[in-house]
Amino acid sequence: MKISILVAALLFWGNAYACSIPAQGAYWTHDKLIEKTDTIYLVTPVSDDHRFRFKVIEVLKGENAAEFQWRRFRSRVDHKSTDFESHNDPDFWKAGDEIVARSPYYPGACTLKFTFVQGENYLIFKESPGHFHSAEIIKTVSDKWYQYVRASITHYK
Predict the structure, then answer these.
(1) Is Signal one of the keywords UniProt gives this record (predicted)?
(2) Structural domain span for residue 61
(3) Is pTM beyond 0.85 here?
(4) 75/56 Cα distance (integer angstroms)
(5) In Å, how far are 68, 116, 130 from 29, measured between CA atoms?
(6) Residue 137 falls within a domain, yes or no?
(7) What is the pLDDT of residues 10-64, one digit of tens each?
(8) For burial by CB atoms within 10 Å, which of 10, 60, 111, 149 has the most?
(9) Phi/psi of residue 125, each to 5°?
């Protein structure tokens, strides 16, 4: 009996704490995300298999590239095709970015479970997959998040 309880407790603890170190970008402010991420691209998906291959539309920060792949980010949850009113929703800008996010953390996960759909454009913070806003949908160049990131990058140069 005692062994069964111990085994059950260890299994529960192992599942609850499978990832003790969140991915880079977790808990960063928007400004720190922009400053600390080396590669920021505006992209569109060209494949939707488990490797997510993207065509680069614009390099906002980092090395030039025509395409790149992001592995391990396939989600089985329903896709949220929202840009939070072109990122004008005030909740998007509040501290504690999880208040408004397309992609949640899952128990035991070290990264967010982003979803991507061909035909949409995304602002990708390539090395910072732990931030709730590292893969936001951008529907227009007047999008507030897109403009904020562009202006901030200019400021940091």
Answers:
(1) yes
(2) 23-156
(3) no
(4) 21
(5) 25, 23, 12
(6) yes
(7) 444 444 455 678 888 888 999 999 999 999 999 999 986 667 889 999 999 999 9
(8) 149
(9) -100, 90
**Dihedral over alpha carbons 86, 38, 63, 53 (to 10 degrees):** -60
Asked if 128 contacts 22 with a C-beta cutoff of 8 angstroms, the reply is: no
Q: Who contacts 59 (Cβ-Cβ below 8 Å, separation ≥6)? A: 40, 41, 65
Task: Give residue for tokens 């140069």.
Answer: 157
DSSP letters along 26-72, please?
A: TT--HHHHHHH-S-EEEEEES--STT-EEEEEEEEESS--SEEE--S
Q: Does a structural domain hold residue 6?
A: no
CA distances from 120 to 43, 91, 117, 128, 133 (A): 9, 22, 6, 20, 16
In the three-class reduction of DSSP (H, G, I as helix; E, B as strand; rest coil), residue 120 is classed as coil
33: tokens are 């995300």
